Amino acid sequence: MKNFKIYLIIIAVVLVIVFMGIFLLKEKGTISKQETIKETYAPTEAKEKSVEQPFQKIDYQSVFKGSLNPCEIFPKEKIEDISGKKFIKAEFKRVPASTFTQYICYYYQEPTKYDKYGVNITKNVSISLFKGDFRRFKNYDLINFKVKQDKEIPFNHKLVYDQNGKFHHLDIDLENDLQLSVDTWWSILTEEEALKFVKDFVSYFKTLVRT
Q1: Which pLDDT score, from 0 to 100, does residue 14 have?
Q2: pTM of structure
Q3: What is the mean pLDDT of residues 62-70?
Q4: CA-based diameter of the chain, in Å?
Q5: Which of 155, 161, 165, 159 is nearest to 202 (CA)?
Q6: Tens of pLDDT along 89-123?
Q7: Distance CA 170, CA 160 (A)
Q8: What does DSSP assign to residue 187?
Q9: What is the H or E stretch that residue 174 is in?
Q10: CA 202 to chain centroid
Q11: Average pLDDT score, the chain
Q12: Counts for the chain of helices (H) and strands (E), in that order
């Protein structure tokens, strides 16, 4: 009887050892599997992070080579290429105001014409750079015009329409005191042509500032 009890104890001890061994092997397999999964996903996560590039501030003064004359920055021939239209001439004007200065280039589509009051009414596309504190002046757009945005334009911008829904101009905020404006309202471009022109201009401008 005594020997029988000893056998039972030995069998119990063996069973405990076997179960412990099975348990330890199972735990080891689970850990190995988790490490494999972690190693599998780690390179992917690293790759995804490497794609995210920090935003680099653009030095527009360097891009424009110190010039704020749009006629020099965007030559008439380039605007013709972008628009698919011919322009008779380009004319630069500097218009100072109390808190900012507008540097504007008119790309004329027809011979110079004036109304009975002597105002130049020649059809044109214009591109302007506003330098200084122009916020109060530009707030006029928000009050008197309809403003939209387009996800295809990769800049902080406003597409401005008049109260009748006609496209007026595009504003692109470059710096706190520098804004680029492309105006087609007083041109002979159709609505479709005008919108296509400003979007094509933005595509060109993007390559210009990122080269």
Answers
A1: 54
A2: 0.72
A3: 90
A4: 132
A5: 155
A6: 999 999 999 999 999 999 999 999 999 999 999 99
A7: 6
A8: S
A9: strand 167-175
A10: 10
A11: 81
A12: 6, 7
